[in-house]
Design brief:
about 210 residues, alpha/beta, Rossmann fold, about 30% helix, globular, nucleotide-binding, membrane, GTPase activity, P-loop_NTPase, GTP binding
Length: about 210
């Protein structure tokens, strides 16, 4: 069937503070990594052009602060997301244990029309640390969690070395594309809680 010319795909990255959300985004978009840790305040986004089957799309990747005090970014931030990326640090068990909280938070705030089938992707980051000797979350454990949530795609990455980052975002983009094809899009240049609430229908009779 002919699909509408959708050009903008919105991806949201969630996870605890310090797991490498910003580093993953920068590695994918700019091919850069910084050892200087700077906490993201509120939310920020980067864009990257991606091509599928002779169509050009802009991937708009939103990065959030992991600190709890910024979790109340609200509906305007989550609204219109086409894919949600859950990131944890393979060396920090708590960041893995919190994946469920982040997933629930997203489903509550974004309230997608089909929550059962909304596309998530899970990334276990920092596999390079200490040559892998300090990891505490096994790949088997992470894959079992993803399977229990409806077979969420899973990747292990090193934002520092660029390992698997490109591959992960290719799947993220493809899943975002599949999820968003029948929905109208409204995305403000900035987060505007006042106006964004009314302008994008949650379920479009397309």
């Amino acid at each position: 069937m002919p699909s509408r010319r959708r050009t903008l795909l919105k991806v949201i990255i969630l996870g605890d503070s310090g797991v490498g959300k910003t580093s993953l985004m920068n590695q994918y978009v700019n091919k850069k990594f910084s050892n200087q840790y700077k906490a993201t305040i509120g939310a920020d986004f980067l864009t990257k052009e991606v091509q599928f089957e002779d169509r050009l799309f802009t991937l708009q990747i939103w990065d959030t602060a992991g600190q709890e005090r910024f979790q109340s970014l609200g509906v305007a931030f989550y609204r219109g997301a086409d894919c949600c990326v859950l990131v944890y640090d393979v060396n920090v068990m708590k960041s893995f244990d919190n994946l469920n909280n982040w997933r629930e938070e997203f489903l509550i705030q974004a309230s997608p029309s089909d929550p059962e089938n909304f596309p998530f992707v899970v990334i276990g980051n920092k596999v390079d640390v200490d040559g892998g000797n300090s990891r505490v979350v096994s790949e088997k454990k992470a894959r079992a969690w993803c399977a229990s949530k409806g077979n969420i795609p899973y990747f292990e990455t090193s934002a520092k070395e660029g390992t698997n980052v490109e591959e992960a975002f290719q799947v993220i983009a493809k899943n975002a594309l599949k999820s968003g094809e029948e929905e109208e899009i409204y995305l403000p240049d900035t987060i505007d809680v006042g106006s964004s609430g009314q302008q994008r229908p949650t379920g479009c009779e397309c």
